[in-house]
Amino acid sequence: MQNNKLFNSPEILWEENASSFLKENSFPEINGAWKLMLLGDGSPTRHLQLLTKKETKIELIGMNLNNNSSDKDPKEINQLKPPLVKRQVWIKSHNTSLAWAESWWNSEEVNTNLTNKKEPIWKNLTKDRSELFREVDSISIVNSEWLQSEFLSEGPLWSRNYRFFRNKKPLTIIREVFNPYIEKWLGTSGIKGYLHLCSTTS
């Protein structure tokens, strides 16, 4: 197990259940491409590779035992059997960080399922063609100085939480934060329309 220093999870300024966007709602419109990236059940790592036409690579920040829970952690991690391991990565294309991700795993499951810890999660989990189910739980707006520094972009930033299921049981909980740079391919993200919903105290 690596014991590299992990980043503190970004501050959550606003969050909403993904199911709210499956029906009519009063939220500002998110354009189609961003809606698919945030709320779709496909692999964002693969989507980014399709958009950039270059291999999407992972830069592993670290994997540590998650001894201290935080109010920033997704509530769904309670569905995983402790002890838990927390993993953080940069998702990169041609040395540009297009996203950041953190995930939570049961400490035994992580070694079984992430045999190549420097590869994207979806490559690890699909290498044996076993059946998986991905469910997006929520999308949020987050911010942190270290993310802005790596992304070379001002926040706030779009984020999402989702779970992978295998045999009807949660396997891992994942949070991803996207670099606004990908507007280059997806168009305007629409995040400005949501800023009035964000907490002013965060």
Description:
The structure is a single chain. With 202 residues, the chain is an alpha+beta fold. Helix content is 20%, strand content 34%. The protein has helices spanning 32-39, 44-52, 107-113, 121-126, 145-151, 183-186, and strands spanning 11-17, 56-65, 84-93, 96-106, 133-143, 157-166, 169-178. Strand 6 and strand 7 form a beta hairpin. It starts with 10 loop residues before the first strand and ends in a 16-residue tail after the last helix.
Radius of gyration, CA atoms, in whole angstroms: 16 Å
Order of helices and strands: EHHEEEHHEHEEH
Structural class: alpha+beta
Q: What is the percentage of strand-forming residues?
A: 25-35%
Number of helices: 6
Mean pLDDT: 87
Distance between the termini: 33 Å
Helix content: 10-25%
Enumerate the strands of the largest sheet in spatial order, edge to edge or round the barrel: 1-5-6-7-4-3-2
Shape: globular
Instruction: Describe the sheet with the most strands.
Output: 7 strands, antiparallel
Q: Which stretches are poorly predicted, pLDDT < 50 over at least 5 residues?
A: none
User: What's the number of extended β-strand segments?
Assistant: 7
